[in-house]
Amino acid sequence: SLQAVIFDLDGVIADTAVVHRAAWEQLAHDIGAPFDEHIAERMKGVDRRGSLEILLERAPHAYSEREKRVLEDRKNSYYVAQIECFGPDQLLRGARSAVESVRDAGLRTGLASASRNAPLLLDRLGIAELFDYVVDASRITHSKPHPEIFLAAATGLGVAPETCLGVEDAAAGVDSILAAGMRAVGVGDATVLARAEDILVGIEAFDIQRYISGQPN
Ligand code: B16
Ligand code: MG
How far is CA 86 from the centre of its chain? Predict the structure, then answer.
C-alpha cells in the first residue's frame, strides 16, 4: 500500500520552470546558440551540467571543461537573481495543500529536486517544514531520467520504492520515477508525460484519495 509521496520541485510546487528556462535562454543568447521550445522541454528536470550539454549541442564552437563551469555559473547567477526575491506567492496554486493533504492522510512526504538551489527555494517559499526528507541534489551522480534521485528519496524516508508515488512535470522525471519502480503522476502536458498513470493539468488537481483507494489506470 501507498506509504509516501515524493514531489519534484521546479514546475510542480514552485513556478520556477519558467525561471530556469529564461536563464538558459539568456545564456544561449550570450553565446550565440539557438534556443527553442524543443530544447527547453528536453532541459526540464535535467541537472545543470546535463542542461548545459543540451544547449551546447548546437553552439557555434566547442567549450573546454573550464569554460563549461563558467557558463554554468553564469546561468546559475541569472537564476538565483530571480529566486532571491521569491516568497510564498511563487508557490503554484494548490501546492501547499497538496503536500499537506499527503501528511494529513498519514503518509510521508519527500522532495526529489535535481536543483542545488532547492534548499534556498524551499526556505523562500516557506514550505521546508512540510517535507519529511529532502534529497541533497549535490550528492546525486546521475541526472533524471536515471532513478537515483527518487531511490535516494525512498531510502531517506525509510520506505520501499514500490510503496511510493512520484509527482513530476518533466518527461525525464516521469521516466526516473518509473525506473525507480514507483507509481508516477504527471503535472502538465499529457503528450509529454504520457507514461504516467495519471496526468493532472496542475498540482491544484492533486487528490491523494485517488491514489490511496484507486488502482492505477
Ligand atoms: P540547478 P527539478 C531541476 O529541478 C530543473 O527542472 C532543471 O531545469 C534544472 O536544470 C535542475 O533542477 C538543476 O537546477 O541549476 O538549480 O541546480 O525539476 O528536479 O526540481
Ligand atoms: Mg520539474
Answer: 17
Please tell me if the CB atom of residue 43 comes closer than 6 angstroms to any atom of ligand 1: yes
Residue nearest atom 5 in ligand 1 by C-alpha distance: 45
Question: What value does the mean pLDDT of the chain take?
Answer: 96
In this structure, which amino acid lies at residue 115? Answer: S
pLDDT confidence of residue 213: 83
Q: What is the pLDDT of residues 46-60, one digit of tens each?
A: 999 999 999 999 999
Does the pTM of the predicted model rise above 0.90? yes
Q: Which of 5, 158, 195, 159 lies closest to 95, judged by CA? A: 5
pLDDT above 70 covers a percentage of the chain that reads 98
48 lines ligand 1 (CB under 6 A): yes
Nearest CA to ligand 1 atom 7: 45
For the CA of 46, the nearest ligand: 1
Quick one: CA dihedral 162, 168, 171, 176, positive or negative? negative
- Compute, in angstroms, the gap from residue 213 CA to the centroid of ligand 1: 32
C-alpha cell at 14: 514552485
Ligand that lies nearest to the alpha carbon of residue 167, given by its number in the listed order? 2
> Does the annotation count 73 as an active-site position?
no
